[in-house]
Amino acid sequence: MSFPRIEFRAGDLHIPELALWLDPHEPQLGPGKVFVSHAHSDHVAAHREVILSAPTAKLMQARVPGKRHEHILNFGETHKFEAAGKSYKITLLPAGHIFGSAMALLEFEGESLLYTGDFKLRRGLSAEPCEPRRADILIMETTYGRPQYVFPPTEDVLKGITRFCREALDNDETPVLLGYSLGKSQEILCGLADAGLPLMLHGSVYKLTQIYEQFGQCFPKYDRYEAESAPGKVLLCPPNVINSAMLRNLGKTRTAILTGWAVDPNCRFRYQCDAAFPFSDHADFFYVYLLNMVFEVYVLLRNLRHKNLR
Is pLDDT larger for residue 309 or for residue 19? Predict the structure, then answer.
């Protein structure tokens, strides 16, 4: 028995036989279910029925308000679903990308598929460690799946970011670190925990960080952004503030974009920043290649074992 057909529809993955979508970009309002790997904006929409982790459900509600039928699964918990008279199992596994991000292990009549969504094998500071499992089919989302994207050690990047912030403060400039409000900002917040820097969060970052704390996540002391008390603080903001009145009103600033794209030499010019640091919540090419090789070896050994049993 082979795994059901997987279709690629306008950029979205669909398994018709199971009436299941994997991280579709467009709202799915029909009878099918949607697996939502995490709550970044390019992975959520106003779907009718979703399968997701508890943190992702809470974060998704903050970003896409509204009513939906939620199947909230704990990591490692296997749940059976029915579709058109057929049943399949799904197990959510930590993806290591951001807090609550999940991979989906699907099992159907003796065959299995692992869908990663965004993932990170390097141990993060604000997300659960990635825990992939063996499967017959592997589908990876590989944002940085090209050989030029190999990231330096995280601790080295954090040292560079800390030095950038201290130099700015010493020059009476406000250091502004630009990263996604969800995931990246909480990761850098943890990364600066031992630096002794005064930290201030943009409103959107503050709101999502509060949700992290509802699930028991701990962070160093921080303040919510207030213009009058921002000087002398390190600001954590989303990238879209780069040309905003908020930034202009701060006076002297030094801006840095935190992204895996900082591996590209022109990154800081593209983002119109003073500096760029390769601080990423994705797997780089090395880890994408590693995971793919592990699965290829597993499939090879499985096929050899089946051949010998004939």
Answer: 19
pLDDT band at 310 (very low <50, low <70, confident <90, very high): low
Both structure tokens of 139? 């589908």
Q: Fold for domain 7-147+284-309?
A: Metallo-beta-lactamase; Chain A (3.60.15)
Q: Which residue has the tokens 């997987």?
A: 6
Give the Cα separation of 55 and 64 in Å (integer). Answer: 14
pTM exceeds 0.85 for this model: yes
Across-strand partners of 174?
Answer: 253
Angle at 114 between CA 111 and CA 116, to 5 degrees: 170
The alpha carbon torsion through 92, 93, 96, 100 (nearest 10 deg) reads 30
Non-local CB neighbours of 71 within 8 Å, separated by 6+ positions: 33, 49, 50, 51, 52, 79, 81
The per-residue pLDDT for range 94-117, each reduced to its tens digit, is 999 999 999 999 999 999 999 999
For the chain, give the percent of residues with pLDDT over 70. 98
The Cα 47–Cα 63 span in angstroms is 13
Give domain limits for the chain.
Answer: 7-147+284-309, 154-277
Q: Is the pLDDT of residue 49 over 60?
A: yes
**How far, in Å, are 29, 203, 206, 239 from residue 226 at the CA level?**
40, 9, 12, 18
Return the CATH number of 154-277, one of 3.40.50.12650, 3.40.50.300, 3.15.10.40, 3.10.20.580: 3.40.50.12650
